[in-house]
Design a protein that fits this description.
two-stranded antiparallel ribbon; about 130 residues; hypothetical protein yedk fold; 2 helices; about 15% helix
């Protein structure tokens, strides 16, 4: 994921779009942020399923089990080679449902203006993700 995003759709809508069981309770989120529990689509033993997971990868070799803010976004260029992400990339991929994400434009006065970017019809799409146990 890059930056912040939003998913305002109920779990049933996510399940319909991604062809999975929607057995979670997840309220709309207009500004998803690291450390929040968010719905993701994973491949389960009986097919795709929707699970709640915390945004912030904790590597399997972590001793304290706490996510670090350096592990909230993996880069496509290095996700397959960095030890922090490598095993999850090979074995535990997921889709992060969203109906938009934010990009910021720098303003002349030094401030930033957020812009929400999404599909023209406002529909759901999936962003690539990885997860750990």
């Amino acid at each position: 994921m890059c930056g912040r995003f939003h998913n305002t759709q109920p779990p049933e809508a996510i399940g319909h779009v991604f062809g999975c069981r929607a057995g979670v309770n997840s309220p709309p989120n207009f500004n998803a942020a690291p450390t929040q529990r968010l719905p993701v689509v994973v491949q389960g033993a009986d097919g795709r399923e929707l699970r709640l997971m915390t945004w912030g990868l904790v590597p399997a070799w972590s001793k304290d089990g706490k996510p670090g803010y350096t592990t909230i976004n993996a880069r496509a260029e290095t996700v397959d080679s960095k030890p922090t992400y490598r095993d999850a990339f090979r074995r535990r991929r997921c889709l992060v449902p969203a109906d938009g994400f934010y990009e910021w434009q720098k303003l002349p006065d030094g401030g930033k203006q957020p812009y929400s970017i999404g599909l023209a019809d406002g529909g759901l799409f999936g962003m690539a993700g990885i997860w750990e146990r």
